[in-house]
Amino acid sequence: MKITISVIKADIGSIGGHIKPSEKVLKTVSDYVTKNGKAFIKDFRVTYTGDDIAIMMSHTLGKLNSKVHKMSWDAFVAGANTAKSQGLYGAGQDLLKDSFSGNVKGMGPAVAELEFDERPNEPFLFFAADKTEPGAYNLPLYLTFADPMVTPGLLLQSSLTKGFKFTIMDVSCTKGDRVIELNAPEDLYKIAALLRDTNRYTIESIFTKDGQPAAAVSTTRLHNIAGKYTGKDDPVCLVRCQHSFPATGEVLAPYAIGQFVSGGMRGSHNMPIMPLKQNSPTSYFDGPPMVSCAAYCVHEGKFTEVADAFDHPFWDYVRNKVARKAVEMREQGFFGCAMLPHYELEYGGIVEILKELDKKFVMRK
């Protein structure tokens, strides 16, 4: 059975600043999907990470389906209206367009979709991040799908030794989706050369060498789609596991690093990303940047109950490590690598200051 899993995520209003959506907004979104998606949505879940709400759906209509995307967009509009009625902060802030046109890509919400022939047992992981960018998945996915030091299955399991194909997007291009396809392990150094620059080159998808979809990231040109910087995108990611794909534990392992990513307060800092339980709010310094992971199996389009992959004592140790790294980075304030370069800042105040000061520089005789 060919099935599509679609995840669409947006910030449509939050309690107390950038903390979490209200229960009433969550219910509005869930009720809308229940009522308006029952004719074509096989199953769905509504969850939140930080101040973003995610709708995860299964259906048979394929990727970028207008009906699925329109229903999700309208659910977020309904939720945003509820947020406005409650006086929540940032109500509707990720809904960047006034009207729907085809699909929600480039309209504000983050979108990740996988379409595949369902296996007899089909485990997958749904990652949702907040206060960071799609490039936050570059290192974990590179280590999972290309590095046998992290994924021993690349050496031990014959179905994995052939490697994987990476589709990488240049998100700085404003004219269209500029992408490149590279193979691991053949192009390993070339892949690494691109992915190290998370602000520009971002994994969009990963496939097996015989064309099976393995992973999808909500990578778009959104942060430059209007020819200027407009946001970090708060990305989602779907990863299939086991058999022809890395094991669940191999996919999770890189998140123990607590890597530094772009984001945090005002989306303008470098901060370590913290693996958190599903439905966790934002806290320290509008973060720290966070990622949740929900594990499911899907069978005939129906989702099992969720297993929260980061709800385990091991990740308490990681969270403590990340908290220490976050505080140590914040001790550097706005200097050097603690704050992003001016061309990546979400807020333009410092850019305006620099432009004004540039006019006052003189060449010393």
Q: What characteristics describe this protein?
A:
2 domains, four-stranded antiparallel β-sheet, globular, 16 strands, ten-stranded mixed β-sheet, alpha+beta, 365 residues
Summarize the structure in words.
With 365 residues, this protein is α+β, with helices and mostly antiparallel strands. The chain has two domains: 1-117, 2-Layer Sandwich (Alpha-Beta Plaits), CATH 3.30.70; 120-355, no CATH class. 24% of the residues lie in helices and 26% in strands. It contains eight helices and 16 strands. The strands form three sheets. Strands 5, 6, 7, 8, 9, 10, 13, 14, 15 and 16 form a ten-stranded mixed sheet that branches. A hairpin with a 5-residue loop joins strand 11 (260-263) and strand 12. It is globular, with a radius of gyration of 20 Å. The relative contact order is 0.15. The mean pLDDT is 94.
